[in-house]
Design brief:
- By secondary structure, the protein is mainly α.
- It has one domain.
- It contains three helices and no strands.
- α1 crosses α2.
């Protein structure tokens, strides 16, 4: 599940969701989430045929 999916679920902007997570990072287990590098995101986008707008960027 992507951050954009969670943001939609909670009816908030993706930016605000990510900001809230960063402010409260110690409340999440270390293996709860991970962040892709730009190269990994580009590769994933290419593999599944999504545009940047499709995944909330």
């Amino acid at each position: 599940m992507l951050d954009a999916d969670l943001a939609e679920l909670y009816e908030v902007e993706t930016f605000n969701l990510n900001k809230a997570v960063k402010r409260n990072i110690d409340r999440f287990p270390q293996d709860f989430m991970f962040q892709l590098t730009k190269e990994e995101a580009d590769s994933l986008r290419f593999q599944i045929g999504m545009s940047k707008n499709d995944i909330g960027e």
